[in-house]
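SAMPLE LOG
Freezer: B-3
Tube label: C17
Construct: single chain, 429 aa
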Amino acid sequence: MGLALTSYTQAVESLYARTTGGVRFGLDRTLALLNALGDPHLQLPVLHVAGTNGKGSSVATMDALLRAKGLRVGRYTSPHLVDFRERMLVDGRMIPEDEVTEFVERHGALIERLGATFFEVTTALAFDHFARAGADVAVVETGLGGRLDSTNVVQPLAAGVVSVGLDHTEMLGESIEAIAAEKGGIFKPGRPAVVGIVPDAAREVLHGTARAVGASRVLDVARECEVTAVEVGAAGTRFRLAMAGERAELTTPLVGRHQATNTAFALQMLHAAGPSWQLPLDAATRALASIRLSGRFHRAGRHLFDVAHNPDGARVLAETLRLAPPARPLALVLCVLSDKDWRGMLDVLAPLVDHVVLTHAPTAPPTRRWSLEEVTAYARTIATSVEAIPRLDQALARAEEMAPSVLVTGSFHTVGDAMASLQVAPLPG
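STRUCTURE (predicted):
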């Protein structure tokens, strides 16, 4: 990496090469990188979000609400679907390729010396880009967990945990309580903490963590917000929200009952941050209409993409399928990483579709590739029409032959690779 890089492609490949060391928790390397950059993470206000599911939707919603106030908004999410640059947006625009290349060239020696991981470098790049682009505020989601996640270097306007479920148990803990404690690690002394719709056991831990760290206050969506009259359709989700003395009927283009509470969480985050960041509820629907988010019950022609990657996500997807059903018959193209609970996902999704096509995602790490033989044998115990086609492009073609509607899900890798194969834009609109 000390040599000059001649193209954006080489720069990104050099970053991907830094994924081979596995997950390495800790903030020291990220802080050292940011310090060398002039601490850009401390130069702008930040809203910080953790959660098992719902981070992307909540961040996209806050982005739209803040931009409706005329603010220039940085947005940092992970992973991407098709293009690495999706991870860092300013006012909805991806970071320029030449800025990525220049960053890697300029700081390659330091990155090597520190042994920084892919996500640590990407986090530093995002904050550097936001500062250079003159962002007024950044909305940032954690990559994994919270307490030791690279993004946990910020001093946020508010920090929130949108959801807690059993995922990444090998790293975050095998109980809801342990995972909640890790995610609540983003709460900061003297800053507001926001708790989304979570299991009671997680709520108790999150409230306790916020109090222990000295958060200025704790806002709980289940207690502070009243979400009623939820109506889900193919074009979005309509609901009534009462919050902070206001009442309004809101509509989000994001589809699913859970998107009503995700929207409430996003609004609660802005309320917690203070008057400069709040948006009146009667203005929120106009702002919400501008949300753009791929891979969340995202329709593109006959295809439906959803990045559900654990049983909780699959259950939410299943409920949304019932509320906003696509044309039948419906074929499922599925690839789940081997370290996820793919049996639990199949149990939820297989009964809702007419055909199951199991496959591999080309960009999935080889060490996390599931066994098609094992998965197929299990799937045939719960579904009548199952086949395994290793190549994703062939699996998609087969599904299209079998049904007018094709659901693609299982992981970000699966959805992103399918969107690339089908030439679906990663940033709709």
